[in-house]
From TrEMBL:
InterPro entries: RidA (IPR006056), RidA_CS (IPR019897), RutC-like_sf (IPR035959), YjgF/YER057c/UK114 (IPR006175). It holds the Pfam family Ribonuc_L-PSP. The lineage of its organism: Bacteria, Pseudomonadati, Thermodesulfobacteriota, Desulfuromonadia, Desulfuromonadales. It comes from the Bacteria. This is Reactive intermediate/imine deaminase. GO terms for cellular component: cytosol. Belongs to the RutC family. GO terms for molecular function: deaminase activity. It comes from Syntrophotalea acetylenivorans.
Amino acid sequence: MTGKQVVSTSEAPAAIGPYSQAVKAGDLLFFSGQLALDVASGELVPGGIAEQTEQVMANIGAILKAAGLDYDSVVKTTIYLLDLKDFSVVNEIYGRYFNVDSAPARATIQVAALPKQALVEIEGIARVS
C-alpha cells in the first residue's frame, strides 16, 4: 500500500496530462491546478477572467465534493495568474467561496503562460477530517 488514494470525478475536467485531479495522503487532500475547462467539452469556458475564475472554483468544488469535503476544508491555495492586473476580480470571486474568518492561506503568482492559454489556475491542499 502506498499510503495515498487518487480522487477522481467526472464532474470536473479530466487531467490533461500524467497527473491526478487530486490525491489523498494521510489527512490531507492535494488537488491539482484547475483551469477553467468545461467538463463536457474539455475546452476553456468563453469569456474573460471572471468567467474563468468562476469555472475554476466550480471545478475545485466538484473535486472537493468527490473527496467528501467542501471549501471549508481547504487550508492552502496557490493562484497562478497570467496578469496580476486581474487580481482584484479573481480575489472578489475567490472570496465568495470561503468564510473570511477561516479562509485558507494563499499565494498569488503572475506567470508567463498557463496551459491551454488560460488566464488563471488554482491548486490547493485541503484537510480531510
